[in-house]
Amino acid sequence: MIVDHRQHHLETVRSVLSTVIYPLQYVANMPLSIGHWASETFASRTRLQNENRSLRKENLLLQGRQQKLASLEAENMRLRDLLDSSFKIGDRVLIAELIAVDMDPYRQQVLLNKGSSSGIYKGQPVLNANAVMGQVIHVNRFTSSVLMITDASHALPIQVNRNGLRTVAIGTGRINELELPNLPNNADIEVGDLLVTSGLGGRFPSGYPVAIVTSIVREPGEPFANIKAQPNAHLDRAREALLVWTLTPPEQNDPPTAEASEPEKQAEPTAEPTPRDAP
Prior knowledge:
single chain, alpha+beta, Thrombin, subunit H, 6-stranded antiparallel barrel, 6-stranded antiparallel β-barrel, 30% helix
């Protein structure tokens, strides 16, 4: 057993045995498979009609909510125009699939099947259908590594959606927990508060949901409360991710090069008055 554990001499034997036993496993699972197939095939007409009716109601409700959101977005644009404020219509997104998960218990990282060939850049925000997942830390040609918000080395500027209280969410190394340090005991925060991105730091766009406050412990004599939150994104079950281009990539914010500014320098002498225009 020790030799096999270290040298893997019996790996071939196990592979052959698994191949031989597979038909037996298939036969043993056949009654259960047949039962599921029969249940789906001979489903009652009444149950199917009820499911269809329920799905139609849900679809109608979602369509109504979408119309309301479109109306609110248009109203928000008009108000921003009145305030002479900038507004970006929509966010460019790209769907990527998770192809690997880092099994190190002290690291919370995943690998996506999109890379620089798809326009992915380092520091790009990553979301799923529910909330923020993390950010891109390494970009290859066809893949990219994402650091999850629950990693112990990750910090995310957030705010309480109820009152705008700003703080930072720190990863704890556990897939279902975030920590909110440096909030005083008298801070206006409650269990159940929704935490959203604040937009500070220029990395994550503002307004995206992050987590829900799950516990608040206020120790007498301690200056800060011990606050925990649970991420809204199902980080341990997500199979797809959304890469967002809400913000401008860092390389597009670089100052112009000398070659780009040279034409402007050449155009400067033409602006000076000619001798004929001099008094």
